[in-house]
Amino acid sequence: MRETRSTFEFNEPIERLWSAITVYEVLTHWLADEVRGRPKEGGEFSWTWKLGLEGDFTTKGIYKKIVSGKELVMEWKDHPAGDIFLQLLFESVSDNKSKLTIVNGGYPSSDAFNIWLDGAKEGWDGQVEKLVTFLAEKPDFTKFIKKT
Fold first, then answer.
1. Which of 28, 59, 87, 136 would disulfide-bridge 103, Cβ 3.0–4.6 Å?
2. Could you read off the pLDDT of 47-90 as tens digits, one per residue?
3. How many folded domains does the chain comprise?
4. β partners of residue 61
5. Does a structural domain hold residue 148?
6. What family name appears in the similarity comment (predicted)?
């Protein structure tokens, strides 16, 4: 099995980075057009992108592991390449600096899946750019969070 791995530095405290990635109301501002499912081990999630003339694209999965402020692991239930996982590793570097390592793996060794592996790397790198922009433009994104 193969994986892609990228590490990014943020000028953000770890708590803010964790919230931007795990609070589903916030994810709709930088990740997907529609997000369902709050992070809970064993809980399901879905992400939907509105692609205009191409229609909507929705992907679904399960939260496999959650260690607050440290690690988030999700597994897709509907990926064409099979049992693909996304592992997000969070590291606090200082009070206002943190690192995020994105591991997207489980891709079969066959060259037939290279397009999926390459697309995953490109896609997550692009999403991180959107996240960086969102965090810079929204110093207080708590207004997006619904009170439960």
1. 87
2. 998 888 888 888 899 999 999 999 999 998 888 788 899 999 99
3. 1
4. 45, 76
5. no
6. Belongs to the AHA1 family.
